[in-house]
Amino acid sequence: MTAPSLPALRLRVLDFGDLPRPLPGRSLAEVDPEIEEAVRSIIDEVRQGGDDALRRVTERFDGVTIGELRVSDGEIDAAYEVVDADFLPALREAIDAVRTFHLAQTTIQEPLEVRPGVEAWRVWRPVRRVGLYVPGGRARYPSTMVMLGVPAQAAGCVERVLVSPPGPDGAIPSETLVAAREVGITEVYRVGGAQAIGALAYGTESIGPVDKIFGPGNAYVTSAKLEVFPRVAIDLPAGPSELLIIADESVDPAWVAADMLANAEHGPDSPVILISTSAALLEAVEIEMRRQLASLPRAEIAATALAGAGWAVVAPDLDEACCLADEFAPEHLELMVADPDALLGRIHNAGSVFLGPCSPNAAGDYATGTNHVLPTGGSAKAFGALSVADFGRYMEVQRLSSDGMAKLGSVVAVLARAEGLEGHARAAEARLGAPESDGRGQVE
After folding, report:
1. From edge to edge, which strands make up the β-sheet containing 118-126?
2. Does 323 score more than 50 pLDDT?
3. Backbone φ, ψ for residue 6 (5° rounding)
4. Which helix (H) or strand (E) holds 97?
5. Is 387 part of a structural domain of the chain?
6. Is position 129 within any domain?
7. What is the dihedral of CA 398, 402, 406, 412, to 10 degrees?
8. The domain spanning residue 289 has which CATH number?
9. Which residue, 79, 107, 338, 417, could crosslink 177 as a Cys pair with Cβ 3.0–4.6 Å?
10. Catalytic one among 187, 288, 300, 331?
């Protein structure tokens, strides 16, 4: 239902020269102290109370009573019977695209001879047990299940654990359960929020602790991930969804408005920013947003996001627009201009970039193959999109033959003594003059 205040919605247009510095809300370190305190209390309760605490906290904050925490195979089987007929084919198409993109990241590195007789290379080792957080409750995000499950599977993680908030009926949405089965999830638990993060970090009677936690969430989930780190590793700071659009007069304002509303409907705290070289475009986009809001099912949520976390600015030129976008470092960046490729080289800080008016960020959310778990809150200046690499790590390996060590021995000894580490120097020199070996234990 359209909220009564929606017709009065206006874009908050800021003057380019008067933008506050630093830009507000661009650090995930700016966590509300009350949220931090609440999250810490929830995690402590879970550490001490285990499964019973998970049930108490879920009932207290979500208003949902849950019995068995783990979702059975039978429940997942039943989920296949209730999803729409066109859902499974579309889901599998999206999974195939995401799998194709992510499998290309799993290249094997061959040994590199850095010097004669000296080989060095890296070997891949997946994180064994990973916890995957998929938002839920009153919403459904099977796409996030795909974005987490596919790279975990491609990486070779043995145990892939899903936690997701139950809906009012105490169940995880059927679409999410079907997606979990399709991407090979090994354990599924109906619990969300900070309490789920605490369970993944410390374990309960039902949920074993994991080695690394992945997935986006609200401010409480993000704060909880930061709270349990470094006891358990986390993927990246992924808070409320963000969109920044750079647009010129060549673009259809209806498309710009549609993309802004698409991001705003994620939640009332989802930033939506429009930078344009055309004041006339901003006015046209505002008119279009009001028109499209009237029929949008999540209109009230979108309007709240635009009113509280949305703004627009007229930039003097596209160079200045790119500089401002880089400063903001958005999760999603759309370059809706006549020549988007010309701008791409000027962009350095963004989670995912969409080139041209026919490339909405909604496509990346589902089916282009790229990952939609992305850095937010300005962290795109240091973090990239979730990838297979996040689900494991490389061990570095080296092998030296006696000839290779003979060539490097004096180098090692000189540098070691420069640092005052005589033992290191002697360890290197002990190999000098040894019988020739290929480094595999075979004396030549």
Report:
1. 112-115, 118-126, 392-400
2. yes
3. -60, -40
4. helix 87-103
5. no
6. yes
7. 30
8. 3.40.50.1980
9. 79
10. 331
Strands 118-126 and 392-400: antiparallel
Q: Same domain, yes or no, for 116 and 18?
A: no
Same domain, 87 and 224: yes
Category of 306 on φ-ψ map: left (φ > 0), alpha (ψ -120 to 50) or beta: alpha
Residue type at position 348? H
Quick: pLDDT tens for 185-202: 999 999 999 999 999 999
**Number of CB atoms found within 10 A of residue 327's CB:** 15
Q: Which of 44, 390, 26 is nearest to 224 (CA)?
A: 44
H or E element that contains 257: helix 253-264
- Domain range for 294 is 6-28+240-369
If asked whether residues 24 and 40 sit together in one domain, one would say no
Asked about 332 being catalytic, the answer comes back as yes
| pLDDT tens column, 61-72 | 999 999 999 999
Q: Which of 102, 266, 332, 372 is catalytic?
A: 332
Count CA atoms within 13 Å of residue 240 on its CB side.
Answer: 19
- Torsions phi, psi for 400 (to 5 deg): -120, 135
Q: What is the DSSP letter of 272?
A: E
